[in-house]
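Supplementary Data S3. Sequence and structure tokens for construct A.
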Amino acid sequence: QFLKQLGIHPDWQFVDVYGMEPELLSMVPRPVCAVLLLFPVTEKYETFRTEEEERIKAKGQDVKSSVYFMKQTINNACGTIGLIHAIANNRDKMNFETNSSLKKFLEDSLSMTPEERAKYLETYEAIRVTHESSAHEGQTETPSIDEKVDLHFIALVNVGGHLYELDGRKPFPINHGETSDDSFLEDAIEVCKKFMERDPEELRFNAIALSAA
């Protein structure tokens, strides 16, 4: 529904990943071009996030210039940012309607910095309105803009044979190593499992895949 509102043809769809075991992963339609993970932001996670950031800043990492990454400056918009990350890094595979608001946003923001993209989204009515209406359609109460939400979305994508974690709260994309179109879903799920292993007593994890319809 959300993709349709943004002017994307329905040849790709978001599907639930019901579990991380091979037989449950085999139920997900292929190919998969992105995975969105919803997870709780806990103290353990925040500690890990700080350490990871310091480690990468010290050691450096290889991030292809073709990775589309944006910062998150709007509260509670992590789902929208995750969606933009998923679509933007697979835009060559998507069929957009001519008047698609998301297509225009991506074309306008391609040459911007991650910070400029965030600022642009703040002013970009068409996507924000869609985000708000789709949040209202959801089963849960929409959190108010200033309410503290402790669940967060990230996107996992394959760009040029590398698996990237894109999280607008982080200063840069995280390169999780090599992947391929065939192994991408399994590789992305391995990254999701690490999130779960860091917080073994937490149950609030949910993965959805952007799959061929």
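Construct B, processed identically:
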Amino acid sequence: MLIKHSRSKKPIKIMDPDCAICSQPALAQCECEAKGLDIAIRQAEQRMMNSVLNEIRAWVRGHAQDYILSYFSMLTTRRKEQHAANIHRMTERAAYYFHARPHPAEIAAADAELKRGIDEDWKASVQKYPEVLEYFYGLVDLTLPGDDEPGVRDPPLSALAGVAVGRDRERKVRLREPSEVEERRRMRRRSRERI
């Protein structure tokens, strides 16, 4: 096959290799190598990313659950205060008009209303999970190395550097912990969003 050199524009003869999987000539343009690359990427992702994804998932889940429970607690605290005020009004009214305690049916109705309200608060809290999970996943920060970093420009792989194949490699995927400055920035953003 003839192609033109990018700088000199002179025709250069190159020989395309046959497919590494099925050995068909390059002109056949089979998809074996592309499919093989997709499979290799999925396998590498499973080996390298599963532990990182599990760590992220556990972090997000814990923070989301804590937030939902605090939100629910805030809602139920308000509701219980309203219930206590309502019971107090009923008691005062019964004492003023009847010189007695409120009727048990009236108390039972107020308690049933409190229970319905708490159930509604829990439902409203749980329905916030998608929004809360999206928020906490949005806080996760994975860093990719720059293209000019030495490890990217000259990877220490056996095919390129002559390094022994059986060498143990440490995990290069890193989950960056937020610095104090980034944490303060996030807190400021959160407080602005609430206003």
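The first helix runs from residue 32 to 98. DSSP finds six helices and two strands in the chain.
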